[in-house]
Write a structure and sequence with these properties.
The protein has about 160 residues and is mainly α. The protein has one domain. About 75% of the residues lie in helices and about 5% in strands.
């Protein structure tokens, strides 16, 4: 039951990433076409694209963390006996979870400051809305690393 839920969650994450990337590419192509052929563009395209790239980066980090394809220094654990390898895995995953948790916390504080004096991000959307990426993205990363700490470390290729 849990494995089926996780598989569905991973599909939703992948679909969200692909949709966001496709949308960003489409907005960029439309913006280029409008500027080339009509001498003007969409006023909202630049800020939306910039924040979209930030959302894409944090959602991509979630996907990388899910499959253990994120940046990691793992030369020493490869040389350790199984018990110490497992212990070092738990410590590093919990430390990473803590750092991501702190970033989520500070992201929430930054979002609250923006809510005190909001401006318009684009017409009809307050400036704090796209900043939700910080507490949501880093909070989910923190959760993913915390869960990963209690799982088996991945097997490395090449050794």
């Amino acid at each position: 039951m849990l494995s089926r839920f996780l598989a569905r969650l991973h599909q939703v994450e992948d679909l969200l990433l692909a949709s966001l990337l496709g949308t960003l590419i489409l907005v960029a192509l439309v913006q280029i076409g409008l500027r080339m052929f009509f001498g003007s563009g969409l006023e909202w395209a630049e800020p939306v694209s910039q924040m979209g790239v930030l959302w894409l980066a944090l959602l991509g980090a979630l996907g990388a963390a899910r499959s253990h394809r994120h940046i990691a220094v793992d030369a020493l654990p490869r040389l350790m006996p199984p018990f110490w390898r497992r212990a070092s895995w738990m410590v590093t995953q919990l430390a990473t979870s803590s750092v991501c948790g702190m970033l989520a916390w500070y992201g929430w504080g930054m979002l609250q400051m923006e809510r005190e004096a909001p401006t318009d991000f684009v017409a009809g959307i307050s400036s704090w809305v796209p900043m939700l990426v910080f507490p949501i993205g880093f909070g989910l990363l923190s959760l993913r690393f915390a869960i990963s700490a209690f799982a088996q470390p991945p097997e490395h290729e090449g050794l």
